[in-house]
Amino acid sequence: MVKCPHCQQVDAINKTGIVRGKQRYFCKSCQVHFSFPTAEATRPMRRHQVTIVDIAKELGISKSTVSRALRGQSDIHPGTRQAVLDAVKQFDYQPNLLAHSLVKSRTNTVGIIVPEFVSFFFPKVIIGAQNVLADAGYNVVICHSNESYETEVANARALLASRVDGLLVSHTKETRNFEHFRAFQRRDIPVVFFNRFCEDMTVSKVTVDDQAGAFRAVEHLIQTGRRRIAHLAGPDSLANSRNRLNGYRDALRQYGIAEEPELVISYDLTLEKANIYINHLLNLPQPPDALFTINDPTAIEALQVIKSRGLRIPDDIAIVGFSNDPVSALVEPGLTTVSQPINEIGQESARLLLRQLTSEEKFEPQTVVLPTELIVRGSTVA
Amino acid sequence: MVKCPHCQQVDAINKTGIVRGKQRYFCKSCQVHFSFPTAEATRPMRRHQVTIVDIAKELGISKSTVSRALRGQSDIHPGTRQAVLDAVKQFDYQPNLLAHSLVKSRTNTVGIIVPEFVSFFFPKVIIGAQNVLADAGYNVVICHSNESYETEVANARALLASRVDGLLVSHTKETRNFEHFRAFQRRDIPVVFFNRFCEDMTVSKVTVDDQAGAFRAVEHLIQTGRRRIAHLAGPDSLANSRNRLNGYRDALRQYGIAEEPELVISYDLTLEKANIYINHLLNLPQPPDALFTINDPTAIEALQVIKSRGLRIPDDIAIVGFSNDPVSALVEPGLTTVSQPINEIGQESARLLLRQLTSEEKFEPQTVVLPTELIVRGSTVA
DNA sequence: TTCGTTACCGGGAACGTTCCCGGTGTTTTC
DNA sequence: GAAAACACCGGGAACGTTCCCGGTAACGAA
After folding, report:
1. Cys-Cys crosslink for B321: which of A332, B27, B333, B337, Cβ 3.0 to 4.6 Å?
2. Are A61 and A4 within one domain?
């Protein structure tokens, strides 16, 4: 009853096992195995995409010609080209970037990994970078590591797998192992760090003059008569929090003020912890008369806590933040803060990456340090 | 001097033109054209990627087997599998997602297009969506249309070209033509609108009860004694600004207050225009005693303007915003506002998309309306 | 023994592009 | 009027995967 598809014989057929749920046969005379295609297994009925060959067939030309017409380059008759363009419109053809990238080995895409983006800073950086990159014809895919090392590694892996041409990163506060970024370097995929960076990786970096900014902030506090200046510092894992701490110390030293260890607290950047430490500082036998925080959200949290305790700002205690978030102008009193050129950070990072992407020869990694500026508002002077 | 590569003859060779900068010859006896490969044209020295076949060659097995081992499925000897895994680690092999997506015709990626993301709202939505999507194994690429219709179209085109499996959109305030989104529908790529949506497209939508929220806000103003309530409305192109306006009108009508046309101003959501109109309202012969704005940034701008004019809030004029941005709790006085479940908007949109992506049969588009809640702060009651 | 079954594995065709290379007319040049 | 140049176009091999299908050895049962 089973007929060999080759010799059409019915006998001399053996069963030879069930493979993937389908009976297989063996024809002894033909010395060949065979099985019968099941009805639905013919094709998974994949939705047909209109491709370059569909256009080619329609116009009776070759796919090479269609490709040439689409890329709008050389070796194409204007008439043919127009015909292709018309057909493309008619069939609503969309080029498949996947195939394109596969053969070109480049995706015209750069990845951006940021640790968070509900605060003002990172979105603004991304927009700055994106504008520059878009002008250069690059797409951008944004990843959000959520301050989690695992997520960051997963993000990096995903970007590597999708073969981005370059990477812009600000790492998480947890990140101490940078192997997932070195994987890009090994493949000659340029990486640029911004804002937060690994000091012992030889990559391009964009940052601001954190130390000088912090110095100016603390100097300003000293010059307005403060002596017990507390500092809520960021985690030690972040270079910029180390630098801001250094700026703080520089100022104290230069003005001959001894550093009180109890006034310097390094924490994990969460508002919960910030709240705890602010209260702790205020509860000290000798509370500080000024507070310099690692960033604006922390300063604003401090502002709320201090006001809720009925203390006067800046009379009883002065506050300085860092980065001049728009909110800092809206709170009452306005927050004195160190502004950084957020948009430029993004733009400069993107430009650095682009230069690296387009340079033919070996590119020397480069570090760009942008200036900071002290913005004085009501939280330090009445 | 020129030898035919076939017959090795030297005479009977003609030049037959220079094509792409290279001399071409014709051998009359072989009846064949030929040219000589230039040295550097051999290969563009493309950096070699380590692929599945490299691993296969190294282990002396076929690429099919390596592929099987990597996908960790059936029909693979545990020993072979382990050997492959070891080699993968040793050679630092990274799978090429482009090739994978090309053959599978799916990218496991969904695109998100938002009109802006410096304000609190959209980043938060994105995070909500991303969490849900990541759990389901999807990657996310975020596009930022910057409230520009052209950019939005470009974004949509790029996402289509890179073959995302689904799309989450909040369109720009300029968008009146939705053809670029219909292109996804034509290809059976599910689209979910959130926050801002096109009413006459049959797609899934996630929104909040704008009308009820606005009603509650205005009702609250009326109940606290206000009668001349102004409304700074959003552009008519956005369904949610229309709905909020409707809620405003409902409340006035229900409480028997006639609508004053001069008190309802629709504008383009920029702070510059907001400032102008706020001042305009305050300069009216009969200025309003309350202001309900389309969103929180506008309300906060109003708050600043009003305070700078020396007017008291809420005594002289009360303010209500919309969406409960974190800033609204920080300004002084605190801003009464209508909160919406921002995170849930993202999550729900993602879930809707996922259901559509995984459902076998035809999926009926669905609209989810999430509740709003009035948050009363100092800008309306002392 | 001999057949049926299981457990693996390899070959090769997709997927949708680009690019190289070689063809064929037609036009220019000497 | 032939040789050289030009203007177009087509074929087919990449790119790096997955998937189908068929092969082979080993083993259990009849």
Report:
1. B337
2. no
